[in-house]
Design goal:
The chain is mainly alpha-helical. It is built from six helices and two strands. It is elongated, with a radius of gyration of 19 Å.
Length: 95
């Protein structure tokens, strides 16, 4: 399969074992072509958001997932924006 897809055998083994959490779109395209399955289905299974407007990486983490679970109300959006502006204006301890 490595030769047929032009993907290294080592990388394919990592995919099979689940060691690769985010396979790239070009790898998924090669696999979809080889196995004659839907590229968009593979993209969705790999964690990409697939919609009419295109394909994007799904957010990771609890906060990111919560924020995309349902749309924010205008009031929630204003509150979140104010909070983030305040947070980002403070000196960071990570620097």
């Amino acid at each position: 399969m490595a030769d047929a897809t032009d993907i290294s055998a080592a990388y394919l083994l990592k995919l099979e074992r689940g060691d690769v959490q985010s396979p790239s779109p070009h790898v998924l395209r090669r696999l979809a072509t080889h196995f004659k399955v839907s590229y968009l289905d593979l993209m969705a299974l790999a964690g990409y958001a697939v919609s009419d407007s295109g394909v994007t990486r799904r957010p990771r983490g609890v906060l990111a997932s919560a924020l995309v679970a349902e749309p924010l109300t205008e009031s929630e959006e204003r509150a979140m924006t104010a909070f983030l502006l305040t947070l980002r204006s403070q000196p960071s301890s990570e620097q």
